[in-house]
Amino acid sequence: MGKRILDILNTETSQPSITAEGWIQTVRTSGAVTFFEIGDGSTIFNLQAVADATLPDYTQLQHVPTGAAVRCKGELVASPAKGQKWELHLSHMEILGGVDADYPLQKKRHSFEFMRTIAHVRPRARTFQAVFRVRHALQMAVHRFFDEQGFIQVHTPIITASDCEGAGQMFRVTTLDMDKLPRKDGRIDFGKDFFGREASLTVSGQLEGEIFALAFKNIYTFGPTFRAENSHTARHAAEFWMIEPEMAFCDLAGDRAVAEDFIKYIVTEVLNRCSDDIDFFNQWIEKGLRDKLESLVQAEFATVPYTEAVAMLEKSGEKFEYPVKWGLDLQSEHERYLTEKLLKKPMFVIDYPRDIKAFYMRLNDDEKTVAAMDLLVPRVGEIIGGSQREERIDVLDKQLRHFDLNPEDYWWYRDLRRFGGVAHAGFGLGFERMLMYVTGMQNIRDVIPFARTPGNAEF
RNA sequence: UCCUGCUUAGCUCAGUCGGUAGAGCGGGUGGCUGUUAACCACUAGGUCGGCGGUUCAAGUCCGUCAGCAGGAGCCA
């Protein structure tokens, strides 16, 4: 195994003899000299390999196609031309894997839409190499942050028989024979199914996360999440990854503090570890991306109660497509106006009306609002949603009835309030949405290796 | 599910008022002593998404179906 391209390019001195392996990104011929750019995914930059007529089989090798897998040997020397510090003067090049004529990647820009149809070669393209390097770095940063803060990661179940999750349409999991469904009283008898009851793929690990928070104090989940909504937007996928920390002995202010530290930490990590990739996105994908990220890290996040946010919007004089009124949820145009135009920095909106939020959020003393928080950031809008959880069992039961839910279905969730229950809080962050924010990519399908969306599960 | 838009060469697109199908990139061939979105010349490459209609004549107008994308809703 030869050195990675990244290591070769970071060499301090010239090298009389090195081996480099990778895929041909592009070939240029000028007179008696041919330039091959070779990449292996380790960095946004390619290694320029230079060949002339002294190379054995030079005339054949001039025609090595884009995409070919090669092993190169030669001398690494300082490059006389601009564009790269080092280049490889070839003494030998071996083609390990050729390329058929219908190789779809060309040395030009393709539409992201076309790239989605060739997800098996898409990771070879520069933009996607950068996306998936950053995806890895961001993921590592998430684990590192929580580990350093003393959080325990919990692997909450992917298959759930709990119908208490109640956040959108769920995918059913079954081993029943679809052609011969067992029936009882005219309805499908899920008692005959694998788990003896209806089962689905999880839409959230939060409720199970609360169980562990009430044992380990600070925990987080980071796993796949599934929503069967027929959503056709750039921000929705049927399968995505979600991060959900949960902290016991913690109120909404503590929740906010963790969220702010967390976002700043993971963005800082990406800036430090993927600086070249961020430069690439800054140039080709989103102008001003680097400034956006660096100012997020510096900014002191604001906190505005929902009631005040509504008042601010009402007296802004701004014309909105959707109405602004106490009791209505904020539309993304409202969120963006607040964070981009009015405050010009990340902001938490807290204390939302109880009727537009979930049953488990802690009821405030005014009995009209709940201890919820959304973190809004410029150019994206909502990126985190969280709350302090209702720990008082009488109030929780009242909330369940208020939302027409049956307390018996939530027996273990209620037990947590009877067995050493204590104030606790948490939040959820869609990993791909964060990745979109950090890379500037505008479609969630382009930050997931193999995206699942309605009608699409080819790869 | 609703609304809007798109579908023309391998890819990205242009195609005017309805009148013989176009460019760039990519492929092939040749040229150029250092290129970096290389450049220059030549060349091959088309069921204009499917079906139906209007018309002397449809890529273009109308209807319909399909696929894709975006927006809304829902949310992460």
Overall description:
The protein is of the alpha+beta class and 459 residues long. The chain has two domains: 5-97, Beta Barrel (OB fold (Dihydrolipoamide Acetyltransferase, E2P)), CATH 2.40.50.140; 123-167 and 203-446, Bira Bifunctional Protein, Domain 2 (BirA Bifunctional Protein, domain 2, 2-Layer Sandwich), CATH 3.30.930. The protein is 30% helix and 25% strand. It has helices at residues 5-9, 58-61, 112-117, 126-148, 206-216, 252-273, 275-284, 289-298, 306-314, 332-342, 393-402, 411-418, 431-439, and strands at residues 15-30, 33-39, 47-51, 69-78, 86-97, 152-153, 159-160, 172-173, 183-184, 187-188, 199-201, 218-226, 239-248, 302-305, 347-353, 369-377, 381-388, 424-430. An eight-stranded mixed beta sheet has the order 6-12-13-18-17-16-15-14. A hairpin with a 2-residue loop joins strand 9 (183-184) and strand 10 (187-188). Helix 4 (126-148) crosses helix 13 (431-439). The two termini are 29 Å apart. The mean pLDDT is 90. The chain binds one RNA strand of 76 nucleotides through strand 1, strand 2, strand 13, strand 17 and strand 18.
